[in-house]
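Course assignment 3, question 2. Fill in each field.
Student: A.L.
Task: Predict the tertiary structure for the chain below.
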Amino acid sequence: MKLSQIYKVLDEISPFELQEAWDNSGIQVGSLHTEVKKIVLSIDVDYEFIDSLDEDTLLITHHPIIFSGLKQINFDTYPANLLQKMVKKNISNISMHTNFDKTHLNEFVAKEILGYKIIKQDGYKIYIEVNEDFDKFSQKIKEKFSLNHTKVVKCSNFIKTAVLTTGSGCSLISEIDAECFLTGDIKYHDAMGAKSINLSLIDIGHFESECFFSEILEKHLKILGLEAIIASSKNPFTYI
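Answer field:
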């Protein structure tokens, strides 16, 4: 198939126009006229991963490899070092980032992974009905995301409602109307700000909360008659 045909399918699954203005979803590497022999799905791409791919592969990732403008293509620096290898092997890349968060990822994690009832969805914010003690709830979250440890800010003993935003959602803290916020990449000052407004936090990890991207997309592609290979994505962090 040509990349243009696959792009059209992806746009129907999760319209690229839904991405945030600061995002860079869509074609990262390649041409609409490129002939694709194989489709591989992954959260991200690294040097070893590119080595493992066959030539003429379309790699569909969650995170864009080119996120901000490139002022130079220096093959000794990231991401140009990856782009060089991809071009040599005719590996194309399409990213489905914030558009996919809005249409699929957040809802899937809330319902299929956590198993909670969704009260409402407001952009990236998924409101779920909890009605559990905080300690019990946080332990359940730890198990569901297979976290080695759980970083929390406890402001309430009982959680009636929680909000889920996969990935990195701390910029939304001031908008949360619930007892608890589940998101990743929580920093010190995020915690201090949340504590000041009596908002409990549970850090669900960036990779850990988004690692379901390939699984979700593969099912949709299969329904539409497209076969894709799910790559074994790796968390760049190692906990010791």
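Instructor remarks: The longest helix spans residues 98-114. The longest strand covers residues 158-168.
Grade: pending
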